Amino acid sequence: MSAAGFIRKLAEEIDAEGLFPKDASLVVGVSGGPDSMALLHALLDLNKECGFSLSVHIAHLDHLLRGADSEQDAAFVQAAADNHGLPCTIERLDVGAMAGEGEGSVEEVARRERYKFLERVCLKIGARTAAVGHHRDDDAETILHRITRGTGLRGLAGIPRVRLLHEGGDIRLVRPLLRHDRRSLLAYLGERGIPCREDRTNQELGAMRNRIRNVVLPLLESEVNPQVREALLRLGEQARWLEDHFRRTMHRTFATLVIARTDQELTLNAAALKKKSRIVQAELIRLAVTSFQIGEQDLGFAQMVAVLDLLGDPASGKETHLPGGMTVSKRYDRLTFSMPTDQPRETIAAEIAVHVPGRTLLPIRCMEITCSIQSIDPKALPQSLHRQHVSQQTPPRAKAPTAEGFEEWVDFDCVRPPLVVRTRSAGDRFWPLGAPGSKKVSEFLTDAKVDPEARSRVAILCDQLGPIWVIGHRIDERVKLTAQSRKGLQIQARPVTP
Description:
Layout: H1 3-17, E1 25-29, H2 34-49, E2 55-62, H3 68-84, E3 88-92, H4 95-100, H5 106-125, E4 129-131, H6 136-148, E5 162-164, E6 172-174, H7 182-192, H8 208-223, H9 228-257, E7 258-261, E8 265-269, H10 270-274, H11 278-290, H12 301-312, E9 318-321, E10 327-331, E11 334-338, E12 352-354, E13 358-362, E14 367-375, E15 406-411, E16 419-423, E17 429-430, E18 439-440, H13 441-447, H14 452-455, E19 459-463, E20 466-470, E21 474-475, E22 487-495
Parallel strand pairs: 1-2, 1-4, 2-3, 4-6
Antiparallel strand pairs: 5-6, 7-8, 8-11, 9-10, 10-11, 12-16, 13-14, 14-22, 15-22, 16-19, 17-18, 19-20, 20-21
């Protein structure tokens, strides 16, 4: 297929499947490799050749994993953005260090943080769609990889063409190239003379994904079935039909089983769960585990069976252990999923929903939160609030408490309700206003010289995407007021008499 034919076919697919409007604002994840460069230029060619008027914003996350090569990738992406006059956001994150701290494998941490980054950029520029360059070969490799790991039926569905970046949110992740294979993308790049960078680590056989791509699939094609990729994709399509039906019912069932939920624990009704079929039990357990941001890739079949066996055991007081330090214990008719904590259990309070607008009493903390939504003119705001402006060069300091407590203003259009107040969770991260990037809340509190005994009682105001205000300390960069802000959320936290 010619490059022009490739672009016409892509335009037809986007229109037929409603991936995004012709005038959409898109954040495009670009690594500099052939897949993402093909996606970037294909989107630009849609504007030139097919009547699209897409607004494209490039996003690149440097994982700091490959030394000078990583730096050169970031420079290459920035140069590509400059050549096309496109806005570009580049961030750097030490993924290796995060994996070393027990936040998951390097691959899992990189994937999770990459999608968080795309969502931050979308929120920053007001886009509702992020696009990445996965293609058909990626999908077939993913399905085979999951088969070798003993995936459940859900895992056989492969890579979704469209999904929400954050469950319950409204920002979509789309994969426009998922109907096209690697060969067609390389042909397009070659015909149009589009440069790209090759990640040399993709040829190394240490990672399982690379062995599947470079050894296992070619062997299956030559010795078993020349059309093995197509066979895998057909399997994935049928599994996806089943998954669509299954997902619609499981979330409703899960909500009926929850007895209690805190930052660190989730308790399900074991007696009711035991009455379900084994496949339904497995799916509900998966929902419980992944609700703590533990990746599905880290939950193996043996671990799932261990939880199912624990559920079916008539004895009480037994437990099993899962990735991420999670402990699953059974006490009579309760099945409890617990994350590790160095804090006394009694100090961890359940999430408390915050009324927006309105007043919310936090009796355990002897505090109340008052929220009001107001139309704003940034130029008319008190001078003290201009510390939030994007041009601020030095890290802002939290305002000292007054008799009325603490007060902050945030951009309401950047907030994703509902809001809750809770204690910090293990692994909580946010981007402190004025800081160069994100960090763990625990590290922020340490740097702020908060007394260790007081850290466990720091209240955090969160929306669907995570912390937006470490109360009394700092708001998150993504919700700050800017010159474009038009609707403000005024938040006041003040002490009340017990």
